[in-house]
Write a structure and sequence with these properties.
signal, 6-stranded antiparallel β-sheet, 11 helices, WSC_carb-bd, DUF1996, binds 2-acetamido-2-deoxy-beta-D-glucopyranose, alpha+beta, 7-stranded antiparallel β-sheet
Length: about 725
């Protein structure tokens, strides 16, 4: 998708003052030799790129334009069309390549001292500004003016800007920048006549209109006292994107103009008159001076950022190649350098090249636009519209409003398609987004938020399926916004894969749903220990849920705390490490950044990137640390005795072993055989005797806990170690 925002930001270098205006971004709707003003009903002499209403064609009228099913401009009630020449790059071998169109910006400006008397463009109104045959700057033909408002060369209606990648823009000039180095494009600009004779909607010599004395300012001449908004069109040509450009060749406009002096623009009104009238009356007389559509209520209600997708370029009406690499300019136009005006194009070409086929100009009835109100039923039976949700809160992945399933297909996407698709997969909720996406789930992400209501309508993108198939034009969300529907049919049994119990989705209620043992969302400190430093599943499991993590930590030795991070990871710990930070002391994750849905149960929340949803295992009983048993009955510890095992054992009376060995087992065995001493060695070996046999080399020593081995029959007791025994003694038997 092209971004037109950069164009809008670099607005109107030669305008001044704080006069009101609005502007809108536009994408191409039609390309080719189409010009219903100059060549109605037939192929035009040269090729244009057209933005605006989808019904533009060689026979277009106001009636057909307002009937356009859509517009490639931002304001949906403006089905007008605006066109300018195509720009070509000519290679040294003489062939041409169409310079990619980088989008247009159309301005409606209130200019001069008489702005309060501006009237809207009437139905049927058309204007052409500029002179296709000009090849030099005419400094002698001036606009009408007087002493207070002097005239100005009408050649100033055309100007060019070179947009560098960075740094200051060179000054505008009245001829084109014949270079590929305008990295962000060459912007061709044309100002239109804003003064009208009040009689003729169009005259082929454009004598029904006149320029303001200063073109972008000033007053209207006698006989043209009806002031209109001044249209100003910027067309961005992506000159830096020409492939294989060399230093020794040139750019040329489709009218055979390598200079740019012959740049021109056309306008045919296709406005919804009520909207245009209100916009002129409320936003041009005293409106916001920065051109932001959002500050003009009647236009804001109508605004969409989906214009390029809502209304893609239509198939060419004139069937001849104008794009890519072509041998000659469309219409066999010859290049003329001037400085004198170019001669009218001869029709000699027609003798050698057959007239291309022209598809009939469309005059379709507009598709009804359906926008349900939240709570209303829409689409398939029993499907209720939940509203437009902001789907940009976490970027992508497990942050979406609906998360279980995503399906993308522009050509068949519609509200009904998505509702049926989600039902077929067992989901109650369906959501359409970005004209082409369908998302399903059984619960709305607890962190999802409804989009601002009223001030901005963010779900304005037409469904790809209904747009291409005709029928009711529906909306399918927007860029980062999703229209959500719920299947209210109570006999529908959801079986989508986010269910916690087979066959039945578990509604997930964040209020209290985390339990009193939810401690909150903790942030790991980069480069330091994780919030929970114990056992972990750092690579993540697809079945991860809060319950799976709790079980994992319980089975991994038992931990006081467990935590979930990044949708599928689980961490355990007996402490929350001090350098981690509790983000919000809340029992709900909606206010913090733990917003990722658990991979194994999408209604649940499992932390986020670098943040952990931490729980306290309140059923956890801390283990008693292993220790040397001090007494078993009347036997008391005699510390440790070394066992060099070079000359027999230190205890030589009796012996037993076993995988269930404990201190108690050994003492009981020795007592049963009437020995005063019991010694446990190497975890599992039990020796008895009535003395420490000196010849064995064994001597008393203090026990070193780090060398002790756990008793296999009781993990909280030590049972000697390698080369020494824990010795117990009783003087009585
Ligand atoms: C127009 O430009 C020419 C050439 O620069 C100059 O001789 C002439 O005086 C100018 N005419 C006006 C009206 O400025
Ligand atoms: C301002 O507009 C009104 C109404 O069209 C017209 O009568 C008047 O002459 C205009 N004034 C100027 C200075 O053009
Ligand atoms: C540019 O050059 C490449 C490589 O020679 C060639 O494949 C391509 O067709 C050329 N493109 C144009 C528009 O000349
Ligand atoms: C455009 O630039 C090329 C290459 O420098 C040059 O040959 C050509 O004459 C220029 N065209 C115009 C109209 O200045
Ligand atoms: C272009 O020039 C050639 C030769 O000068 C001429 O035959 C042809 O008619 C011209 N084409 C147009 C459209 O004027
Ligand atoms: C333009 O209108 C004329 C007159 O109604 C009609 O004959 C012609 O077929 C139309 N052309 C196209 C391309 O629609
Ligand atoms: C999109 O849907 C159309 C119409 O059902 C189908 O023909 C096409 O194969 C689908 N495309 C993809 C990528 O699934
Ligand atoms: C959508 O959410 C983003 C991120 O929090 C926020 O910047 C934006 O203003 C929200 N837009 C609307 C229309 O709610
Ligand atoms: C959204 O706005 C409409 C119209 O103003 C209103 O009826 C509806 O209740 C609002 N919805 C919400 C969720 O605020
Ligand atoms: C979850 O998945 C992991 C890895 O595939 C597996 O080891 C574990 O047993 C599973 N746990 C449950 C409760 O299904
Ligand atoms: C949500 O966060 C904000 C900003 O940190 C805080 O002022 C507010 O009290 C928090 N709300 C809850 C319910 O924790
Ligand atoms: C976790 O639970 C235990 C047992 O209920 C309690 O002693 C401990 O203070 C809790 N930890 C935190 C951080 O709340």
């Amino acid at each position: 998708m092209k971004s037109f925002l950069t164009l809008a930001a670099a607005a109107l270098p030669f305008l001044h003052g704080a006069d009101a205006f609005w502007r809108m971004n536009c994408a191409v709707i039609q390309t080719g030799r189409v010009d219903p003003l100059v060549n109605p009903g037939t192929v035009a002499a040269h090729a244009h790129s057209i933005v605006g209403g989808s019904n533009i064609g060689v026979n277009s009228t106001y009636a057909s334009m307002v009937n356009s099913s859509c517009t490639s401009c931002e304001l949906r009630s403006d089905k007008s069309a605006y066109w300018t020449p195509l720009l070509y790059y000519q290679y040294p071998n003489g062939s041409f390549f169409e310079v990619p169109h980088g989008g247009s910006v159309v301005y409606y400006l209130a200019r001069g001292p008489n702005v309060t008397s501006i009237i809207p463009f009437p139905p049927g109104f058309k204007i052409l500004s500029g002179d296709k045959s000009a090849r030099s700057y005419d400094n002698e033909t001036l606009t009408w003016g007087n002493a207070a408002y002097p005239g100005r060369p009408i050649a100033d209606r055309v100007s060019f800007a070179c947009l560098p990648a960075s740094g200051p823009e060179p000054p505008n000039q009245p001829y084109m920048f014949n270079v590929t180095s305008c990295v962000d494009g060459m912007r061709a600009q044309i100002a239109f006549q804003a003064c009208w004779n009040g009689v003729d909607l169009y005259k082929s010599d454009n004598s029904h209109v006149a320029y303001l004395s200063g073109i972008d300012n000033g007053i209207c001449p006698p006989g043209y006292q009806h002031q209109l908004p001044m249209i100003f069109v910027e067309t961005n040509y992506a000159v830096s994107q020409v492939p294989n450009a060399t230093d020794d060749s040139k750019f040329v406009f489709s009218q055979g103009d390598p200079t740019g002096f012959g740049f021109h623009g056309d306008f045919i009104n296709g406005w919804d008159m009520a909207v245009q009238t209100e916009a002129v009356n409320t936003c041009l007389f005293n409106g916001a001076p920065d051109g932001v559509v959002q500050e003009c209520p009647v236009l804001n209600a109508d605004d969409t950022n989906g214009y390029a997708q809502n209304c893609p370029e239509q198939p060419p009406q004139v069937d001849e190649p104008v794009r890519g690499l072509i041998e000659r300019l469309p219409g066999c136009i010859n290049i003329t350098y001037g400085p004198q005006a170019a001669p009218a194009a001869s029709m000699a070409c027609a003798a050698t090249v057959a007239k291309p086929y022209i598809t009939p100009t469309p005059d379709s009835t507009p598709l009804p636009t359906a926008s349900p109100t939240p709570g209303a039923m829409f689409g398939l039976p029993l499907q209720q519209y939940m509203g437009c949700y902001n789907d940009t809160l976490g970027g992508s992945g497990y942050y979406r409003t609906l998360n279980s399933v995503e399906y993308v297909n522009y050509t068949n996407m519609s509200v009904e398609f998505c509702q049926a698709y989600c039902m077929s997969l067992g989901y109650t909720l369906s959501g359409v987004e970005y004209a082409q996406e369908c998302h399903c789930d059984n619960e709305i992400n607890p962190t999802a938020v409804a989009a601002l209501n009223g001030t901005v309508n963010s779900c304005t993108w037409s469904c790809g399926g209904t747009l291409t198939a005709g029928g009711t034009q529906e909306f399918c969300g927007g860029l980062g916004f999703i229209d959500v529907y719920r299947n209210t049919n109570t006999s529908f049994v959801p079986f989508g894969d986010n269910s916690n119990t087979a066959g039945n989705a578990q509604p997930y209620t964040p209020a209290g749903g985390f339990g009193s043992n939810y401690l909150g969302c903790y942030s790991d400190t980069p480069g330091q220990l994780r919030t929970l430093p114990g056992a972990s599943v750092p690579d993540g499991w697809n079945n991860m849920t809060i319950e799976v993590c709790a079980a994992f930590c319980a089975q991994s030795g038992g931990y006081q705390y467990y935590g979930l991070e990044y949708a599928s990871q689980c961490y355990c710990g007996n402490e929350i490490v001090p350098n981690s930070m509790l983000l919000t002391p809340t029992t709900s994750p909606t206010n913090d950044t733990c917003q990722m849905r658990c991979k194994g149960s999408e209604p649940e929340v499992c932390g986020g990137p670098g943040v952990m949803s931490v729980y306290n295992n309140t059923a956890y009983i801390p283990p008693i640390p292993p220790a040397i048993v001090t007494h078993v009955g009347k036997y008391g510890t005699k510390a440790c005795v070394t066992d060099p095992n070079s000359n027999g054992r230190p205890l030589q009376g009796g012996y037993t072993t076993g995988t269930n060995m404990t201190v108690e087992v050994c003492v009981k065995y020795c007592l049963g055989q009437y020995y005063h001493y019991a010694g446990i060695e190497y975890g599992v070996e039990c020796y008895c005797g009535n003395e420490i046999v000196a010849s064995s080399g064994g001597v008393y020593a203090s026990c070193n806990a780090t060398d002790e081995m756990l008793c296999p029959g009781n993990n909280f007791e030590f049972c000697g170690g390698r080369g020494f025994m824990n010795v117990y003694y009783s003087p009585d038997l």
